[in-house]
Amino acid sequence: MNVQEALRQARQHIEESEFDRAESLCADVLVAEPVCVPAHQLMARVWLGRNQPDKVRDRLGYRDQLPHDEHYVEWGLIAEELEDLQMAGQLYEDLIQREPHNGLALYRLGLLCLERGERDRAVGLLQRTLRASPEHTAAAFELAQCYAEDELWGLAADAYERGLERDPANEEARTALQLVEARMRELAQLPSSEVSAGNGPARRMRVLFAGRENVHARQWTDEAGRVGYSPVHEPLADHLLALHLQGTATLGVYPVRADQTVLFGVLDIDVRKSALATGEAGQSMTARLREMVQADARRLARQFEQLNLPIYAEESGYKGVHLWLFLAEPVPAAEVKRFLEAVVQRVGPPSPELQWEVFPKQDQVAEDQLGNLIKLPLGIHLKTGRRCLFTDLEGQEYSDQEGFLDRIQQVERQDFERAVSRLVAPPGEGGAAGSAQALREAFPEYEALFKGCPVLVALMEKAVVTHHLTHDERLVLKCVLAHLGDDGRQLIHSIVGHCLDYSESITQQQIERTPPYPISCPKIRQRLPEVTSTVNCACVFELPEGGYPSPLLHIDPVVTQGRSHSADRHGALVDRYVNLRRDYQRMGRELAQLEDDLRYALNSAGRDELRAGGWILRRDGEGRLQVEVDLG
């Protein structure tokens, strides 16, 4: 009997629980071929059948002395049956490292990750499985179920459909697809009547969302569930917008026109990918995150209201909100970008786990480039199957979306420029500094304080230039100046009074809650690192006995006498620690944003590798970015 026939018979005996016969056949094969991997594996299965786990572990340990051939994945399956999932995962990891496109190993490791609660990684592995083995129907159905649990209905429907193309008899999957499609129909329904091709809504959208001429973007998904956009070099005509409104195409627009102007600006409030829950919740939005998004949208919208600018909220269809500002005539992209960044700076920072983006992202776009795109409202996000509807600031959808388009107001140029002048300091102008000087002249008794503390002067200048101070900036002013009596309190009102949201009564209430001791210099640096790092905040005082450093020592050398405490003595260390922590968090946010931008560039280019500046940027099958030197 040849080896293959002996192995075939051994498998049959194992299936029939005839373990003695199977063991005898395997032993005969191993006498003839001691390194026959399938024979060793069948012997391990004999011991599994006999419930002899120690012998199975011994055989698994012996595998390293055997060839790493095409049967290696079987060791992982044996370890799984032994219920040693840690060993099984390591075996699959080892195999994938040698064979990155081994579909079976990717699939089995994905299932193990699901069982361990590593949901994001599991989805990535299942996506890689389908890229490596498009015919793997089990992976398609498993991925579809993950998408459905994460409320990514569009991706779930695609995955079910692709699995059913190869396994049309799978009634369970077909039923699941029907449920997903029903949910998608519900989410895609416009609250108002159906939109027909060539109707007014399409023409209205063409006016409101005019961007780069002769080109638009179209959203796509691939077999592995990745979503991206591709440029289509065709004008954004009414018939295309009608398809977008009907839900048969999802379109985007490149905001910056050929003459470097824009007709709209957008603030995008989004949940960071790292904040999306893993485990049971997967990538679905929790109620807490949804409320955080809406709260940030309201914060930003209030700033526009104070500037008398109409702003319009739209649910982005996935995990965020877009705030749209529409312009009646083209405005330089650089001016709109700078204005929106000033709004963000005034209102920010975003809530934890959220990020804000400004569109247009570029001041100028080269003739042969397009810049960053943004998805148009009222279409269907292919990832979730959700219709991207206009809402109020509480997140409630308007009942007549088509009619709402007609009610949108486009801001006249003079009104926009008036808002800019109230919010953004004009570059190169000295008028604001003069206004700050007027404040100093109105309180000559504090000139020594102004000369000695550049932080206070910087806050005064910021108030008169930007008409805004953050909570921490007002707190510092209060905790210094309120200790100077009635004149100091009046100076607080004079400074904060330049802010658009100034309230005399609220400011007075805050003053009345001033702590009993003046704030120390280390605590000012802790509160305002973005200010203190840009001015010469390095005063050297002769401290009074038991005192601590404070700006008020410039006019009263004993004001802090006997008031020192351990926190102030260690203030320099705390100050350095806090500043480093803030730098670390800021760099983390910037790195996350850069990675998002690079993934977008890879998606737009339709590949997983970019070469630029002597480097090679690669995206692995799980979406992680890797960089190496380009030696070619």
Biggest pleated sheet: 5 strands, antiparallel
Let me know the number of strands: 12
Round the Cα radius of gyration to an integer and report it. Answer: 32 Å
Distance between the termini: 54 Å
Number of helices: 27
Portion of residues in helices? 40-55%
CATH names the topology of the largest domain as Alpha-Beta Plaits
Strand order of the largest sheet: 7-4-6-5-9
Provide mean pLDDT, rounded.
86
Q: Can you tell me the CATH class of the largest domain?
A: Alpha Beta
- Structural class designation: alpha+beta
Strand content: 5-15%
Under the CATH scheme, the architecture of the largest domain is 2-Layer Sandwich
Shape from CA axes?
A: globular
Brief descriptors of the model:
Alpha-Beta Plaits, 4-stranded antiparallel beta sheet, 5-stranded antiparallel beta sheet, Serine Threonine Protein Phosphatase 5, Tetratricopeptide repeat, 27 helices, 4 domains, 632 residues, 11% strand, single chain, alpha+beta
Describe the structure.
By secondary structure, this protein is of the alpha+beta class. It has 4 domains: 3-153, Alpha Horseshoe (Serine Threonine Protein Phosphatase 5, Tetratricopeptide repeat), CATH 1.25.40; 258-420, Alpha-Beta Plaits, CATH 3.30.70.3300; 431-569, no CATH class; 580-629, no CATH class. The protein has 27 helices and 12 strands. The strands form 3 sheets. It has a 5-stranded antiparallel β-sheet with strand order 7-4-6-5-9. Strand 10 and strand 11 form a beta hairpin. Helix 6 (85-98) runs antiparallel to helix 7 and helix 21 runs antiparallel to helix 22 (485-496). The longest helix is centred in the last third of the chain and has 35 residues, at 571-605. The model is unreliable at 193-198, 278-282 and 425-434 (pLDDT under 50).
